Amino acid sequence: MLDRRIAALPVLAALATTAAYAEAPWGQPEQPYDALVRRLEAVEAQLAAEPASAAPGVEACGCLNLGDAPCECWPPAPKKPAYPTVKVNGFFHLDMGFYSQDAASTATLGDIDDGLGFRRSRLSASGQVTDATSYMMEYDFAQSQARFTDVWMQFAETPVGVLRIGRFRQPF
Questions:
Q1: Considering 11, 69, 79, 122, which has the largest number of Cβ atoms within 10 A of its Cβ?
Q2: pLDDT digits (tens, 9 = 90+) for 6-50
Q3: Cis-peptide, bond into residue 10, ω within 30° of zero
Q4: How far is CA 78 from CA 55, 74, 83, 140, in A?
Q5: DSSP category for residue 112
Q6: Whose CA is closest to 171, among 155, 158, 152, 157?
């Protein structure tokens, strides 16, 4: 019996709500809802009929813009980069070795010195000259004789495709 009472609660709540709407001063509960639906459909039809540019001061996002400042909810258009660009980069590779020898190893090989040094120490500059032209220069200071490892210029828009000229490591 208790289970039937609990199951009947949602039905009673729905009937009470319907009765409350039936006693509303505007009459039937469907009447305001139907009026709102008709108004919404009329506004949607009006907006669909007007071109987007017909509303002055309204941004594409729907914001009202009455001044000269752009809409704040959209990010500004990306600025075209100023050429030439330069990005300086570098890295180093440190090598060290420590050796522990016993008497037999010292007698056979001699005393092996511990060591510390740079295997690579490179500084590079890369960037773009135009939208379709880029470059890179990389210099290695750690070798016994310092030298350029990469020096090239690349042209992206050529009749044969991408063209890279200079000294560069070949991609795998």
A1: 122
A2: 444 454 445 445 544 545 555 555 567 788 888 888 888 887 776
A3: no
A4: 26, 12, 15, 36
A5: P
A6: 152
